[in-house]
Design a protein that fits this description.
alpha+beta, six-stranded mixed barrel, two-stranded antiparallel sheet, 13 helices, 56% helix, elongated
Length: 402
């Protein structure tokens, strides 16, 4: 039998029981819709996390202080304060592929300006800091190397500081007092919002690291060293080179620092969302299996109801393969139509979640294709047994069936 007439026979059989066909497809519709929506929500969450990680910097490698041991007492990670500005400059000078380095010191200080005060994070950085963090200025300018050399009293502030202390006025050129020392505001950063760790990135004051170390914090050691690689492909080799250089400068002492790159942080941050996406997709996929079982059940009922029809078709010349193909086409049609409707519903649910709940969603083309192919495969798998059963009927027994 030709494939065209077989399709028409299958379509006619499905139209005879429209309600039953629709209810049979319902399991597939719900399953595919759930997979599309859940994977879209999971991908959206992962994209949001990746965006937040990207906002921390571009091709960034960070050197953190390590631990110390003294008289049997062992401090935790971050307790050793041995990183120096000279080591940061050595990294910039000696390691190929490094395009920017910023020695960093961090502290929290009570600051005053425009008759108001605010407790905020004070950072000491180099002029390369904005390049490393992929951060732009909304107004003013960044301090330069002359400010580093002279430890000048200048500052660049975040949007939160501008709003809290200088609301309604232009902060550029105004004075900010830190530990009663006057710092001239020369720049305002563009807002970045909260980072992956829940901290307000705009609630910060940036000073030349020499000014922060000598004038504000009274430190001789750094809190971290920020390094920017020329490309993502060079990050691993630069990370290794930085570790080797710093260890060489310690002349055999145990490592008291740790080097991490941004890719490691991104992988750790997105691991949970990847797992949750896979879990949600798997749970939703179970309903596809349930829908397939429903198709098998209905097709078995259909074979029983149409036994006499099958016998008549065989008596007038239809072969077993023709019967098998017809019932298989019916099962695949049910699952494929259910898959298409489910894709539409999945997109609708994802869009509704994004619009009304404010959650980011990202329905990928691969998820749509995989869901549709899987739904069609479910039709083949669960429709094959009823189709084989129909094809194996004895024509004489089928004609006698009441």
């Amino acid at each position: 039998m030709k494939i065209g007439p077989t399709f028409r026979l299958a379509a006619r059989a499905l139209r005879r029981n429209k309600m039953r066909s629709l209810l049979t497809m319902l399991g597939i519709i719900i399953g595919v819709g759930a997979v599309i929506a859940m994977v879209g929500i999971g991908n959206g969450a992962r994209s949001q996390v990746e965006g937040q990680i990207a906002s921390l910097g571009q091709n960034m490698i960070t050197v953190f202080p390590g631990s110390f041991s003294s008289g049997g007492a062992r401090g935790g990670w971050g307790s050793a304060s041995t990183l120096t500005a000279e080591e940061a400059l050595a990294v910039a000078r000696e390691i190929p592929g490094v395009v920017a380095v910023s020695p960093e010191v961090r502290d929290r200080q009570q600051i005053m300006g425009n008759g108001l005060n605010w407790n905020t994070q004070v950072l000491g950085e180099s002029p390369d800091y904005l390049s490393i963090r992929a951060w732009e200025l909304s107004d003013g300018a960044m301090f330069g190397e002359t400010d580093i050399a002279g430890a000048t009293k200048v500052a660049v502030i975040g949007k939160t500081i501008a709003d809290q202390l200088f609301a309604g006025t232009d902060p550029i050129g105004q004075t900010l007092r830190i530990r009663n020392l006057p710092f001239k505001i020369i720049g305002v950063l563009k807002p970045k919002g909260f980072n992956f760790f829940g901290s307000d990135q705009d609630d910060t004051v940036i000073l030349p690291y020499t000014s922060a170390m000598r004038r504000v914090m009274g430190r001789t050691y750094l809190s971290a060293i920020l390094i920017q690689a020329q490309s993502p492909e060079q990050m691993a080799s630069i990370q290794q080179s930085v570790g080797d250089l710093l260890q060489q400068r310690r002349k055999g002492r145990d490592p008291d620092f740790t080097v991490r790159n941004q890719l490691e942080l991104a992988e750790a941050a997105t691991a949970t969302s990847k797992t949750m996406t896979a879990l949600l997709g798997s749970i939703a996929g179970v309903s596809l299996i349930v829908g397939g079982i429903g198709i098998m059940n209905i097709m078995l009922v259909s074979v029983t109801e149409r036994t006499r029809e099958i016998g008549i078709r065989m008596a007038v010349g239809a072969h077993g393969r023709d019967i098998l193909l017809q019932f298989l086409i019916e099962a695949v049609t049910l699952s494929s139509l259910g898959g298409l409707l489910g894709i539409g519903i999945g997109f609708g649910v994802a869009e509704a979640v994004s619009r009304f709940a404010g959650w980011p969603t990202n329905v990928s083309a691969s998820a749509v294709i995989a869901s549709f192919v899987f739904s069609a495969a479910v039709g083949v798998f669960f429709g094959l047994y009823p189709a084989k059963k129909a094809a194996a009927l004895d024509p004489i027994d089928a004609l006698r069936y009441e």
